[in-house]
From TrEMBL:
Native source organism of the sequence: Roseibium alexandrii (strain DSM 17067 / NCIMB 14079 / DFL-11)
Stretches assigned to coiled coil: none
Protein known as: Xanthine and CO dehydrogenase maturation factor, XdhC/CoxF family
Residue ranges of domain XdhC Rossmann in the record: 78-218
PANTHER family, sorted: ALDEHYDE OXIDOREDUCTASE MOLYBDENUM COFACTOR ASSEMBLY PROTEIN (PTHR30388), MOLYBDENUM COFACTOR INSERTION CHAPERONE PAOD (PTHR30388:SF4)
InterPro entries attached to this UniProt entry: MoCofactor_Util/Proc (IPR052698), XdhC_Rossmann_dom (IPR027051)
Length: 231
């Protein structure tokens, strides 16, 4: 493998950026395709889109012969803002589904090891956490505290960063007030429309456990299906 390509691939992995190494099986030549870098005119553009979504490597046929696509996609993260009952139910389910899960809540009465054993629990303000652990496009963010002082900042950061899923708990009235605050902060209508509120797939969920199922379903849909993020 070309050392310059290997260096680029490793740097991308460290920065949680997705890429595909294309190896021509006829002559052994290689090239690196980076997500969100123009490749629309490439003959394999549709295949690249599919592989970035699935995360699966494999052999494909091209007009120039066969090529092997080595797909490097960051592990998806789910960041829960709020150490509430919904989060308690959601953490183990999301971990089983393959997500790296973090729970952020500065309220130490809620953010306790007893309530979240073995999870990545951060009893800090989101602003402080995000300085060292910023969001990225392979992060889903679900804000469930009902407290604007805690929820607003990470939600706006998630929208600015392009997180693949952004959801927020709250009624239509609560969300309307949230949008007013975000508009005053300079966010556009198009950007704000990416927030799923009410949060979670509409399955008639009522209990915290059922809402957790609905949220996880929405997160997986946004990750795996083109256009899965609310428009």
């Amino acid at each position: 493998m070309d050392l310059s390509l290997l260096s680029q691939l490793n740097a991308g992995r460290a920065a949680r950026r997705a890429a595909i190494l294309v190896t021509n099986m006829t002559d052994g030549s290689q090239r690196l395709i980076k997500q969100n870098v123009a490749y629309r005119n490439d003959l394999l553009a549709e295949e690249f889109d599919k592989r970035f979504l699935s995360g699966k490597s494999g052999l494909v046929k091209t007009d120039a012969g066969e090529a092997f696509l080595t797909v490097s996609v960051p592990a998806p993260r789910l960041v829960l803002i709020g150490a509430v009952h919904i989060s308690q139910a959601l953490v183990p389910m999301a971990e089983i589904a393959g997500f790296n899960v973090s729970v952020i809540d500065p309220r130490t009465a809620f953010a306790t090891e007893d309530r979240f054993p073995g999870s990545s629990l951060l009893a800090e303000w989101p602003e402080d956490v995000l300085r060292d652990q910023p969001f990225d496009p392979y992060t889903a963010v679900a804000a469930v505290t009902h407290d604007p002082k805690i929820d607003d900042y990470p939600l706006m950061e998630a929208l600015k960063t392009g997180c693949f899923y952004v959801g927020a708990l709250g009624s239509k009235k609560t969300h309307g007030k949230r949008l007013e605050r975000f508009r005053e902060a300079g966010l556009s209508v198009d950007v704000m429309s990416r927030i799923e509120a009410p949060i979670g797939l509409d399955i008639g969920a009522a209990s915290p456990q059922e809402i957790a199922v609905a949220v996880l379903a929405s997160v997986i849909k946004a990750l795996r299906k083109p256009g899965g993020v609310p428009a």
